[in-house]
Amino acid sequence: MRINCPICGDRDRREYYYQGAAVTLDRPAPDAEEAVWEDYLHLRENPAGRTRDLWHHEGGCGAWVVVTRDTVSHKIFEVALAADVKGAAR
Amino acid sequence: MGELQAARPWAERLDVSIGRSALVEVDLGHLTVLAPFGAEAGMTEALSAAHGLGFPKPNRATGKDGGRCIWFGRGEALLIGPAPDASLADHGASVDVLDAWAAVSLSGAAAVDVLARLVPVDLREGAFKRGHSIRTQVMHMSASITRTGKDSFLILVFRSMAGTLSHDLKQAMAAVAARG
């Protein structure tokens, strides 16, 4: 598996640390309902298909990236800097 | 503060040749991480005025032996050689990291084959030319690798890993040499 870092270029998977689903980019408001927070903290989709995760390029430039990939075919559709994704959402 | 003595990363001087590759420890002079605040333009100008060096783009290095600036991660570069001019601190963080890194030079016709055993990036000349510099891993160690010549590489790892770096490189050099 190779991930095309927006800064470093195409790199081996072993340079990356896998954090998990990219839902952590959408943190609920501090006063959101308990159920919303529980969902955010504990409940994750387990899709057979397209998923979005956060990876840390710890063995490279040190950037966090959002990887959109298919868990069945292993195809990677998109890799974007988490800073850009987060910035665009604001 | 009293006059401090610089300690070397290896207890004995590292200087070995195995087959067609040679490994030597290098004393790089000052090592300073430069991290511009926001835009790089100010730092680029100050670096050029004070040291005659460009601020490197990602995966690139500027300068030559004695005065070099290599890309060192997202938003960071490493100034190698000269003591940093005070003006650099006006445009970003300027941090002395001389005691944090160990540096070796790996050279020779087989150097690229030695690194191919340890590094998950294509370092052959077609893909990794002189003036290219990357952050990657040597085995499991976080490293910086710069091509300094046709058959020579500058490799930096955290100083606490110096022993592991020399061990891994020597093993790979012997393994490559054994294949003839």
Automatic annotation (TrEMBL), chain A:
<dbReference type="InterPro" id="IPR006279">
    <property type="entry name" value="SoxD"/>
</dbReference>
<dbReference type="Pfam" id="PF04267">
    <property type="entry name" value="SoxD"/>
</dbReference>
<dbReference type="GO" id="GO:0008115">
    <property type="term" value="F:sarcosine oxidase activity"/>
</dbReference>
<dbReference type="InterPro" id="IPR038561">
    <property type="entry name" value="SoxD_sf"/>
</dbReference>
<dbReference type="GO" id="GO:0046653">
    <property type="term" value="P:tetrahydrofolate metabolic process"/>
</dbReference>
<protein>
    <submittedName>
        <fullName>Sarcosine oxidase subunit delta</fullName>
    </submittedName>
</protein>
TrEMBL record, chain B:
<protein>
    <submittedName>
        <fullName>Sarcosine oxidase subunit gamma</fullName>
    </submittedName>
</protein>
<dbReference type="InterPro" id="IPR027266">
    <property type="entry name" value="TrmE/GcvT-like"/>
</dbReference>
